[in-house]
């Protein structure tokens, strides 16, 4: 039999493709769609690509570190996006949709305290190898209707949302099939990603009239963005850069209008957590309903492009220190930075963060950050007259029997997220504050499952690498 015949006889209809395959495929077609819809995002991708290439060619240290942790292969695939949902059914079904792609809800973020009436989670892969194969994530927010204080408007919003279906019938069918059978074959997977993409597409016609749009806008720009459209259009995509300061300063030269300041920690030798910036949201033409059937032209602002630089994940102790220093800086300048005080804010931030250790050894020994542990060649010569335990780890590091690499932070930061929302929604909204408590249990009820605990995930992964090293040493 020739090899051609072998290929012809292969029936793949019963073979499931991996969730990683589906996730990568979805991330690719989403990026293509967004590049078409928002050409400025394509320009941003080019800029990030150029800068990453430059950084890697200049620093073998960074290159080796990324190779060691497996991140190098994913750098160019890396991106996250964000959507905003309107009702519990949408969140519940979105969880099922993302599960087909191997994405699970990690973390709970309450943004109401920062003036945005939503609470959120991030859907992403949870295995390290799966993340390295397909690092696509989606920051997913659910509108908190309980925070709309106008009773009549809230009832109207409920009715509008009740009547919308953001998923295609075929997508729902394929989600059911995947749940029932435990996966999708290649053909179904392709059909699934195309159908799922429909939910994320931009619509330039609103589902409400201009009057209602204005009323929604009057409550909060975000409420208008969620409620006035047919579906939760993807509102940004975010590539990962190795030097966000260069991207921030390089944007203007390429006619990409940057946001005033970078969110998150200041520039450091050893990056921590997550730094983010974006280009400002586009003003887009929208047709609103009217009773003459012609439609009324108007504008809407929601979609933008973002850039992120990821650093090492922090332990609770490290995160507390981070929050303290960030809080101190924000308090000193009177809240979120503005165009006027952006440079004063940056200076102060850098100054305040001087007490945060900026080398990996110290971040490790003070238990401020999480690391991957690796054994070195030296373990061959190690004395075998004892069983090594976790208590020996620091000594083993000192003797060069173990080395560490920073564990990249895979998640998000509520204050930064609120800053990203605010810079793309208009400053007036950012100044408002919502009373009331964060409501993780309601979020999880709507989601239909509890979210994965953020800190525990890093803790477990670090523990796993330590145990692996110890068992190598002890055998
Ligand atoms: C989400 C903003 C948060 C991030 O990277 O922190 C976010 C949104 O604007 O819907 O994406
Ligand atoms: Ni984002």
Notes on the structure:
The chain is of the alpha/beta class and 475 residues long. The protein has two domains: 3-313 and 409-453, 2,3-Dihydroxybiphenyl 1,2-Dioxygenase, domain 1 (Roll), CATH 3.10.180.80; 315-366. The chain has helices at residues 3-9, 19-37, 39-58, 60-69, 88-100, 128-133, 151-162, 169-181, 186-200, 210-219, 221-227, 244-253, 316-333, 342-352, 360-365, 393-398, 414-425, 427-431, 440-447, 454-474, and strands at residues 79-85, 104-110, 118-124, 137-143, 205-209, 236-239, 274-279, 283-289, 296-301, 304-310, 371-375, 402-406. It is globular, with a radius of gyration of 24 Å. The chain starts with a helix and ends with a helix. Bound molecules: 2-oxoadipic acid (OOG) and nickel (II) ion. It comes from Tenacibaculum adriaticum. Belongs to the 2-oxoadipate dioxygenase/decarboxylase family. It is an enzyme of class 1 (oxidoreductase).
Provide the helix percentage: 40-55%
Quote the beta fraction: 15-25%
Here the CATH topology of the largest domain equals 2,3-Dihydroxybiphenyl 1,2-Dioxygenase, domain 1
CATH architecture of the largest domain: Roll
| Principal-axis shape | globular
CATH superfamily of the largest domain: Uncharacterised protein PF07063, DUF1338
Main beta sheet: 7 strands, mixed
Using the coordinates above, name the CATH class of the largest domain.
Alpha Beta
Question: What ligands are attached or bound here?
Answer: 2-oxoadipic acid, nickel (II) ion
The count of DSSP E runs of length 2 or more, i.e. the number of strands, is: 12
| Uncertain spans | 1-5
Please state the structural category: alpha/beta
In round numbers, the mean pLDDT is: 91
Provide the spatial order of strands within the biggest beta sheet: 2-3-4-1-6-10-7
How many separate domains? 2
Alpha carbon gap, first and last residue = 48 Å
